[in-house]
Design a protein that fits this description.
Layout lengths: L2 H22 L14 H16 L5 E8 L2 E12 L4 E2 L6 E2 L4 H14 L20 E5 L5 E5 L6 H6 L12 H6 L14 H9 L16 H13 L3 H10 L23 E3 L6 E2 L27 E2 L1 H12 L3 E2 L2 E2 L3 H7 L13 E3 L4 E3 L2 H4 L8 E5 L3 E6 L4 E6 L2 E4 L4 H11 L14
Parallel strand pairs: 7-17
Antiparallel strand pairs: 1-2, 1-16, 2-3, 4-9, 5-6, 7-8, 10-11, 12-13, 13-14, 14-15, 15-16
Helix pairs in contact: 2-12, 3-7
Amino acid sequence: MNACRLRCLTIAISLFLATELLSAQEFSRAIPEEVGMSSERLGYLTTALEEYVAEGRLAGAVTTIIRRGQVVYNEAVGYRDREESEMMQSNAIFRIASQTKALVSVGVIMLQEEGLLHISDPVASYLPAFAETTVGVAREGTEYDVVKVNRPITIRDLLTHTAGISYGTGPAGSAWAAAEITGWYFAHRAEPIRLTIDRIADLPFTTHPGQAWVYGYSTDILGALVEEVSGMPLDEFIKDRITDPLGMHDTYFYLPPSKSHRLAAVYNLRRGETLLRAPEGPGMETQGQYVEGPRQSFSGGAGLLSTTRDYSRFLQMLLNGGSLNGTQLLSATSVNLMTVNHVEDLYRAPGMGFGLGFSVREDVAASGAPGSIGEFGWGGAYHSTYWVDPVEQLIVVYLTQVIPASGLDDHSNIRSLIYSAITERTPFLPAPQR
């Protein structure tokens, strides 16, 4: 090897190691008062969550709050496994379900930035099974007619959940049940996601594209699209393009057995009943097969496991305009595109709209909850939630494992407690222009 090639290789290795070091840097910790928050009031949050545990409404939870790029709160309460008396730790791993959607949506926009697709493209340009899709139109009784869609489904329809594709409900729900495709849980499936998605394309959808906001398999379809366009299995794409560059070392579709001792147990809270540990085995309301499953179905809509530490790194990247510690995943323009309302009034939550993978707050008064215009976020079926408030430079990640979570009011409670702890408005960023 000549001197020039050796020097170039040395530089390349040095740059790679520097990038890895930067991406792995941990957020600094701050005393809340240093970033305009109250330690005393954040203590009220801990007290409230401990009360949920004491009352038997939660087994445990982990909450991470970042303000102005620094961690001001990172607390675990209760139990990782109540029956085994194993306390919750801040590095516990949770099933984040629909919080997966944000990573896959970012992946789609990364491919757009590389010129490999455009979100206005028909999905069928990449997934031919969607060339001729249909809609189930209700008739009297339980009957329905099957009609062709009124226009092709686009990638943006999938990103905004306006493609008309549900989780197997609607007039043609019986056809979905017969095809054994219902619900968001895929971890037990012993087939690649592309095969499942091709079978979904043959089933009658709930509405025509653009007619309504319909929550369902749209992001799972995007996961198959990412595989097709990138030429990589979805788990490899997420790892190579998103989680590894951001230093998210505990985010997986299926958990390595060596980390199974950190996986939080799932609990069921049904109305009128006490909190019970979910049974073992596959299914939406069980412990699932995230360790012992077939490890073949990578659900872009609900498949990932993660920690509050990892997920807050992903969100800080978005808050930073697409970069974290020198690693640029997206342009600031693309982040803005993702976090504005694309659906006009189709998303019917008061004061809220929906962007490319996130709900977005458009009117604080109409929403009736503390927050800011331009805030974006979502949550997961196991009762987790997150949001990013660009005005306040605030990130909140709250992970627990309760499904169903009947009667739990912790989400609204923690939101109120967190905003009440802000003592100083962030002065250096104007409200986003929407």
